[in-house]
Design brief:
Layout (H helix, E strand, L loop, with lengths): L20 H29 L4 H11 L2 E2 L20 E6 L6 H11 L3 E7 L12 E6 L6 H6 L6 E5 L7 E5 L9 H12 L8 E2 L2
Parallel strand pairs: 2-3, 2-6, 4-5
Antiparallel strand pairs: 1-7, 4-6
Protein name: Membrane protein
Keywords: Membrane, Transmembrane, Transmembrane helix
Pfam family, one: LytR_C
């Protein structure tokens, strides 16, 4: 070829294809997204194996913690005030073969502030049939009132109520194992504890 379009020299011009910038942008964004997802997954795995979930576990445990209250030591419905010894009349009955026990016991109860009613031998129902220290007998209304008060004076005595019994008097029936009333100091402590029971323990978490 000649003229003004004549090619000289030993180098020829190269014909370049137009760059596809759109594809490069898409590939770049896709690569970044893949790397981001992979990195997040790696962090999650590291978190699991290194115990990173402890805080959530601890929070769940704390939320699951409940409060357990221990039952009160006082019996249900024990809102009635306890009677004083001076308001309780006691019949002292001897169910043993040893004479003089009823009068001696009655005198001691009187010294301790109780009122004394009848002093005699026990009726046939109990005579020579009480093997323990004694039996405390009263009406049903005395179960949580007068009987516990009298019970502080004779530890180990059996307590009974008779629904058909009228009045408010109590019977102290002396049994074969009787060796005397509870020592006054111990009886006074028991009476004080009965009149002033300890408050129920505070509730605590069962965690």
């Amino acid at each position: 070829m000649g003229g003004q379009y004549r090619i000289t020299g030993d180098k020829y011009p190269r014909m370049r294809r137009p760059r596809r910038r759109g594809k490069l942008v898409v590939l770049t964004v896709a690569s970044v997204a893949v790397l981001g997802v992979g990195g997040w997954g790696t962090l999650q795995l590291i978190d699991v194996f290194t115990g990173g979930g402890d805080s959530a576990s601890a929070a769940g445990t704390k939320a699951a913690c409940g409060t357990t209250a221990k039952p009160s030591a006082s019996p249900a419905g024990a809102a009635k005030p306890l009677p004083l010894p001076g308001t309780i009349t006691v019949n002292v009955l001897n169910a043993t073969t040893r004479s003089g026990l009823a009068q001696k016991t009655a005198d001691e109860l009187k010294k301790r502030g109780f009122k004394v009613g009848e002093v005699a031998n026990a009726p046939e129902t109990f005579d020579k049939k009480v093997k323990g220290t004694g039996v405390l007998l009263g009406p049903a209304t005395a179960l949580d009132t007068a009987l516990p008060v009298l019970g502080t004076q004779l530890a180990g005595a059996e307590r009974r109520t008779d629904p058909a019994r009228k009045g408010v008097e109590l019977d102290l029936i002396i049994g074969d194992a009787f060796r005397g009333l509870t020592a006054k100091a111990d009886a006074d402590k028991a009476l004080t504890a009965l009149a002033n029971p300890e408050p129920a323990p505070a509730s605590k978490k069962n965690c």
